[in-house]
Design goal:
CATH architecture: Up-down Bundle
Radius of gyration: 20 Å
Strand order of the largest sheet: 1-2
Order of helices and strands: HHHHEEHHH
Number of strands: 2
Number of domains: 1
Largest sheet: 2 strands, antiparallel
Structural class: mainly alpha
Length: 230
């Protein structure tokens, strides 16, 4: 087997699965927090949640772990992609895809790259402005029970007031849907956890997660742009 940064191709798939499941758990938490905007309370509940996440030392420490996991997942995925390509340097004149192989399972590298580009834009819009440059909205803070909170809700409304941004975010969520549809099941299979007894349950949970999480994420920019939340 070919060797590389994370060992054999089998080990690369193992680490892809571990980091993938870790990122899936992050998506669940991130989605739950962002969904607080649907409380329709002027963003107060969302700002409180964001303030807690941004000031909690455990969460801030896990933020570093998250970046490490994301980088490892991307690097490992790219290494697997190029390793698989180099294993067949000369393509056949015509390759018929396997009947059991879905197009999105063969396009994980492309979907992952699209998601990465989307994440760079997302980090610029929110993480960079909350951690380094400061928010663009005025005033940048709101008050709750005497505590000063960053107005991240106002920042979201500003960012999602631009149609092109909303379109990019929706397309990013669409790519995430396809990526998760294969990645969720694949992670359990690579870890040897996709037992026959639980196979259908894992498939159901994977499909449900792949639909619900990207849909909720996509609903946020659309709802803000359309004025459905305020």
């Amino acid at each position: 087997m070919a060797k590389g940064l994370f060992g054999s191709s089998l080990m690369k798939k193992f680490w892809m699965s571990i980091t993938g499941l870790f990122l899936i758990s992050f998506l669940l938490v991130h989605c739950a927090l962002n969904a607080l905007i649907f409380a329709n309370d002027g963003g107060m509940l969302f700002n409180q949640g964001a303030h807690f996440m941004g000031t909690n030392i455990i969460i801030r420490t896990m933020e570093i772990v998250l970046f490490g996991g994301l980088i490892a997942h991307v690097v490992d995925g790219l290494m697997l992609f190029f390793q698989n390509r180099s294993a067949r340097p000369v393509k056949y004149a015509y390759e018929k895809p396997s009947a059991s192989s879905k197009w999105y399972s063969r396009s994980m590298a492309l979907l992952g790259t699209l998601i990465l580009l989307f994440l760079i834009l997302h980090l610029y819009h929110f993480w960079l402005r909350t951690r380094i440059t400061g928010l663009t909205v005025q005033p940048t803070h709101v008050f709750f029970e005497g505590h000063k909170l960053e107005d991240l809700y106002g920042e979201m409304k500003f960012v999602f007031s631009h149609l092109w941004v909303v379109i990019v975010y929706v397309l990013g969520c669409f790519s995430l849907f396809w990526h998760l549809l294969h990645g969720f099941r694949s992670a359990f299979q690579s870890l040897g956890l996709n037992y026959t007894k639980y196979k259908n349950g894992i498939a159901f949970c994977g499909d449900l997660f792949s639909v619900v999480i990207p849909t909720v994420f996509a609903a946020m920019p659309v709802s803000m742009y359309m004025g459905w939340v305020h």
